[in-house]
Description:
Blueprint: H1 3-18, E1 31-37, E2 42-51, E3 54-63, H2 66-78, H3 84-99, H4 124-156
Antiparallel strand pairs: 1-2, 2-3
Helix pairs in contact: 1-2, 2-4, 3-4
The chain binds zinc ion.
Zinc ion binds at residues 37, 40, 42, 64-65, 67-68, 129.
Amino acid sequence: MSDNLRDLYRDIIMDHYRYPRGKKEIDDASVKSEGKNPSCGDEIKLSLKIDDDRVKEVSVSCQGCAISVASGSILSELVVEKDLDEVKKIARIVKSMLKGEEDPDLGKLEMGDLEALQGVKDFPVRIKCALLSWTTLIEGIESWQNSEEFEVSTTEN
Ligand code: ZN
């Protein structure tokens, strides 16, 4: 990676760290999820408003290092107005990117500022920081989907 590119990526990350996006709280959130990364001390609270299997609003509140905060901020921009299958796919691609793994869909994703996080794969201790918001997001969506299924099956009986 060239020095210029590295500087650009650092500027993007620091901008998200100083001015995190998606901080506005959601009154009637469908999904609430919390996550911690004990190895660094990062903590995140994330909520979503879901309508018709689509993310309508995202709220992210992250306390931690620049990488974890920036990753949560970028997440809030990327997943809004996406349907849940797309969100899961994006999360999978992000995971592959951060771990330096091959992913057939990696080239297809509109990366936006996410690109700035790809240097993280060279710093294994930081990968968990960058992944925290994404794993918290998927855990929240999956437990919400499971409880929805439960409600549907109990009302049907
Ligand atoms: Zn961290």
